[in-house]
Amino acid sequence: MLGAFIRAFRTPDLRNKLLFTLFILTIFRLGAVIPAPGINSAAIREQLEAVQAQDSTGVFTLLNLFSGGALFQLAVFALGIMPYITASIIINLLTVVVPRLEALKKEGQSGQGKITQYTRYLTLLLAVLQSSSIVAMARTGQLFQGQIPVSSYMPNQDPLTLVTIVVTMTAGTGIIMWFGELITERGVGNGMSLLIFTTVIAGFPSAMTTMFQEQEAWVFGLICVAGLVLITGVVFIEQAQRRIPVQYAKRMVGRRMYGGSSTYIPLKVNQAGIIPVIFASSLLYLPQLAVGLMGQDADNPVADFINSYFITGTSPLYMATFFVLIVGFAFFYVAITFNPAEVADNMKKYGGFIPGIRPGRPTAEYLDFVLTRLTTPGSLYLGLIALLPMIALGASGAGQNFPFGGTSILIMVGVGLDTVKQIESHLQQRNYEGFLR
Known about the structure:
Number of strands: 5
Strand order of the largest sheet: 4-1-5
Number of domains: 2
CATH topology of the largest domain: Preprotein translocase SecY subunit
Distance between the termini: 9 Å
Structural class: mainly alpha
Radius of gyration: 24 Å
Strand content: 5-15%
Order of helices and strands: HHHHHHHHHHHHEEEEHHHHEHH
Helix content: 55-70%
CATH class of the largest domain: Mainly Alpha
Shape: globular
CATH superfamily of the largest domain: SecY subunit domain
CATH architecture of the largest domain: Orthogonal Bundle
């Protein structure tokens, strides 16, 4: 594999793509450590090291993950790629229910361009809302659970300064979105996925260092071995797919014969990807938001119940609810992104059929049956992987710095595999052996 990377850098155009991608990722990481105007990020870092204010649950922890730690430093790129992910999810959901968007999706490249433009506008709108809420929480001290004095990191709270911070964070989101599109067009791999991958692995060395300092040597070695086994299992599941054979009948078009070829429909075990985990995490933050709106009333039984069972990630009720939501959202997202009836109609239109299955409605029912059987183990797998940090926190207290689990491991493995495949395809086009000999 190392030799394949050397050959990749020896190829001029592929080398330029790789260097351009690394250049954009470097600028992206620089923006994650530059504080917004009026913010003392050094004071935040010192206080966080002392009190470890980051909790292991909640949507703001998820936002901090996708910003590479920039959120809890209130940096220029504090929002990270999360507004774009949320906007993309919303647009995908609206495509199913809004006829106009569904028609644009079927128009091909021109329609997809308009949908992308709508996604950009929605991303900026969400960035304004999220940056405003983050600034409001930072101003009141709720972002760090009241453990860091507001005056230490935000000494000036006049309206102009607050508006400047919001505008800076929103502009940072727009720049991140532009970076992702540049990598997709001129670099290697999917730009947005690589930006997420970069933010996740940015905290990996510090998490490993902290765990090495806090745990005994044999415990640290056991965690590393368990992490390697887990990564192997995740790679196996992420690569697993059911290939549905498709045969195309021969047909005459003019004087030429078309068709007669065989192909397949690849249905992955984890067809939904990381989206169900994001949905479930965001939904479980609503009870915490409700408690914040209720205030610290000691006589409120609803707030007491939420504080007891839905604030801490080690609560069995919280973990069970999180698991059920992930499984449910996995089925929901697969249902709206893969339409068996549409696939069956397209196959029938071009003379394709599954051997042993009649075209049309029987094909759609067969695809739906296979997809349901695949999504069941895939959703259970997602739920178990997402619960790993909470289980580690409850068992050993190492959950806050546990690097081998949850959303991070899914992103690292998934994006890493996809990027390696794209580099491999570039090498194979030039008659190289690639990564696998």
